Each structure stands twice: as C-alpha cells, then as structure tokens.
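_Backbone structure tokens_
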Amino acid sequence: MKTLKIQDRLFRFIRQVSRQETEQNLLLELQSTSGNRFFQVASQVIGDESAFWHACAAVFLSVDGVLNGEVLANIVVQQVEKNWASLGHLVVPYLGQRVVLSVSPLNVAEQVELQPLPVYVPERLELFNLLRRQIASGSRSTLQATSAKSQDKIIRWGQSPADNQIIQLYEVLLAYEASDVRLFTRGGQSAYVAAHIGEERVLITEEIGDLAWGSVEREGRGRQMFARLASAADSEISLRRIQYGNVTLIDRNGQIQTMRMVMAPLGPGDGADWEVGLRVISQSGFIPLERMHLHPRIYRSITGHWPVDAESPGSVLSEMEQIADTEMLSLLDLETAISVVAGSMNSGKSMLLQNVGMLRAQRGHHVHSFESPIERLVEGIFQYEVTDQNDWESWSRFATRNDPGDIIFGEINDRSTAQRILSFANGKLVLTTLHTNRAVRFTERLRNLLRGSNSGENDAQIAAFVSAMGYVYCQRLLPRVCPHCSTVEIVPQAIRESLQWQFRTWRQVGSGCGRGTCRTEGPLQGYLADRVPLTEAIYVPALAEHFLRPDITVFDLLCAAEQLHQQTYRRTAAWLLDAERDHGGLVTWDKIAPHLQEDRQAMRLLARHREVVR
C-alpha cells in the first residue's frame, strides 16, 4: 500500500513539473535509474528550477497532513541537543505540534523520546536534503541550528554579568571578523585574550576589559566567565582534564548563535590555570570559488578551466606550454584519488574542500562529508557530524555500506584515520585536510602519523599514499592591503633576483583611511577585513619518484617542483604582489615574506645547480 502511495505521488509530481510527454518519459526513466539522486538530476533537466522545487515541495513535503508546501516558508527547523539534525532528523515545531522527519533508523529509546511520524516519500535521504535546501536558501525561510537545552544553559544578555561578558566577547569577535579566540589564565590570577584574525594572532584583552581571576573566597570576572562557559557547554571547571562542548547564546538582536568550546588545563598539579578556546560556528559566510581570489592556475587545477575575466594563460604563466600533460587533469575530473588541502588552523582548508564538494555534487556525484563539527550547510553535500557517540570509525563503516561516490573527511590527525582514508581511495575520490605548512611536506607529515614498530610497513603505506594521490594544496590566509591608502613602491633588486621575479612594483601598507573595511588603528591598520589565500598546488604523480625517497629534503622537493613547473608559493606570491597587474597588489611583502623562506633557499640551490651545469 505504501509503495503504491509513493508511486502515485511521484507520477503526480512529474505531471506537474512537465507538460510534454517526451519530457515526462525522460523523468520517469530518470526515476528508475537515478535512485536517490533523482531530484538532483531531474532539476537539471527542467528549465525553471525554482518552479521545479516548488512543485516538489507541494507534492512530497507533507507529513501525515501536518506539514505541506504552502506552510514551508513559515516554519523554523530546530535540531535537538544530540545534534540529530546532522544525522538525518529534523524537528519541525508547527501549530503546537512537534514533527520529526527521520531519514535514518532510530533506536527504541530515541523513538520513544522523539515520537517520529511516518514520512511517505520515494527517497527519505533526498527528502531530508531537499527540505534543508528549501529552508536554508529560501529568502523567506530560516534554518536555525539551535540546541534543545534547558534555559539555564543558554547564555542571554542581562542574565548575569558573566553572560554579558561572553556576549560582549562574541560581538568583539564579529567586529574583528575573527574565527576563534583563546582565553588564558596566568598564575591563577588573571586572564588575557588572543583572537585569530585570519592566521594573525592578535591580543584583544583591552577590548574585553579586566578579567581578574580573583580568589576562591571572591571570584573575579575571569573565573566567573570561565565557569559560565563551562556550565553552558556541560563541562566542569573543577575537573582537570580536556573538555569539549557547544556554547549556545542569544545575542542582543535575539538571534541564536553557537560557539564550539574546548577547555584545557595548563600547568602541573591542581593549579587554576586554564586555556579556553571558542570557535564561532556560522551557517553563513560561505565564499564561492570565484570570489576566493585564487591564482588562475590554482582555479584551473580545480575546475579544469580558467576563471572568467582572468588574464590569459600566456600572460599569467609564460611556461604554460612546458607543463606536463598529466597536470592537465583537474581535481573535478579525478575519479579515484586522494586529494589533500594542507595548512595551519584558520587557513581556509575546509572552505576550499566544501567548494570542491559542492562542484562535484553539481556534476551529479554523490558526496558524503564527515565533519567535527558541521560549521555550515553546503548545497548538494550530505553532511554528517562526528561526535563521541558517532566517531570516525562508525562513520567509516556507514560510508562503506552506503557506497558514496566522493568522501570528504575532516582531517588526517592520527594513524588510524590515515589508514582508513587510504582504504577508501580504491575507486573513490577522497578529499581531506592535513596540518602542515607546505604541500611538499605531506609525506613527511604522513610518516610521522604512520610511524610504528615496522618501518617497512610504514614505507609501504607511504608508497600506497603517493600512488593514490592526486593534488596536494597548501594555503595561508593573508590580510588584503587597502588599495586606497597604500602606496606603490619599487621592488628591491635583491629580492627580485633571489626569487627570480619579473614584476617591478608592489604595495606598501598605508596609515589606514577608513574607506570600506580599511582599519584605522590596531595591529592590522591599513589592511581590509578581506583575506587573500596564498595557495600552492602540487600534482603528486608528476613528483612521485621524489616523494618516495626517504632522505629527500623539503628544499630538494621544492627544487623539483620548480623544475616541473608546479604552482609553488613563490609563483602565487608574485601574482599577488604585482601592483602593475589589473586588480593586483593584493598583499604586502612583510605579510608574505615569512612564508617564502624555503622558496628562497630552493631558488639559491637551483641557481648553483645551473652554474655547475654550465
């Protein structure tokens, strides 16, 4: 009976979105062959996509008559405390009733607690993502990732001095456009605050005010703030161990916000020193690839074509005709490989991965992303959150059984994760991140993670990784210099010669004019709030024999990368600094120089090698 009802809805839906018999037959054929990608593929066939999704909502989005397409724009979707929404459960409060749309099996305890109602749709997983997209992208609708916490766990303005202090800290983070903040106690007496603005670490203690720690008899503002953060995240400041949790607050505009918290005890014994880290979890702020200021060659290595309105390949890179044919493969064209985005914290690794995943999904690939935590929802990607209850190992088994086309793993941070990712590389595209500061260092980092008692086994795993690799990207985020108050200066001859650069002028930071987002004071005076990525891309198959040498140095690898015309930091830096290029002069030398020390040494080695050859 249920199957007949599903088929009836499907036929009714196809008749609504298409009036032509030929097109209806095509949609019916798609339904029988596409499985749970039917809606995604069918939306590309129909000319009016907005009308397609509206008809889809009207036909399929009904849960026993409680929820339908007409009221879709007015509902607010909430996720419950265990973050079930990211696992496939959406709790929809409507007309005083609580409706649960479930797309993955619930255990008995959860069924009793949530009281899920049956959902009659052809593919439950597709319904979940459809509903999420409709609400997240619609101009009149909202998706709030809130927690069903008790009222005393939610931080509100006016509830206590500590609550006010935390909300003020959150507002300072937004004003600085900082991604996260660290609060430290020193000697159990006071606290100071450091924020990450891009990759810059800036002290903002003066913005927060005095955070005296106080004593056991009389707690100071710092201790009260730490204790309140711990309580809001279901942690305990009296426990001397690392603790994790989410902090939910309601800002002064009445909007619910979430921050990810980690607490770590500092120093030995039972002292009172702590480090508390807070990371802003924002569902907004997604930056498309076209607006990321990527070097055109980096953009082409991902998408397979040059960005619109970019300089022609000949003017961007004079040796384009010398690039190996194998490098013409773009990341979107790879079908079975591991590709890595490396970098430090807050370097934009996840943003780049999400862009690649979204583009792969638009091509019809089934993309599963496993993240800890999910910071933003991305169109077309099936996102799952890794928690203590659902760890990497559990999700790996889940991914194996569901056979996704592409897999995004948040990070390679231990041996077991590295081995698990390697096991997925057979027949799938695996995207992941790695903490290292250069693309050519990825094997060095993997050797450290895979180090065990059997060195021969470790070498075999490194060889397996190299043979399965596609691209390795590495990225650093640099502050963008203000084009209005900065000045154009001649590049010193010594720097041009040492890095073999051809451009003649770059920009020096100004005094800060306040135009746009130009800062007029502070450590980033004269810079905009915007960030520009210094990115390099290494196509691993082109350097495979070099990566497999256990005794090779990072300088030797950079020399090989330069000789094989790979896109290194040196090449990208020249493009970013060149003030004579249209829309060039994006960064300053003092911000980019610390990242080019290894490049300078590599170019000296290459120059000596050329002299020997002569």
In short: The first helix runs from residue 2 to 17. The CA atoms of residues 223 and 492 lie 51 Å apart. Residues 75-88, 102-126, 135-148 have pLDDT under 50 and may be disordered. The longest strand covers residues 469-481.
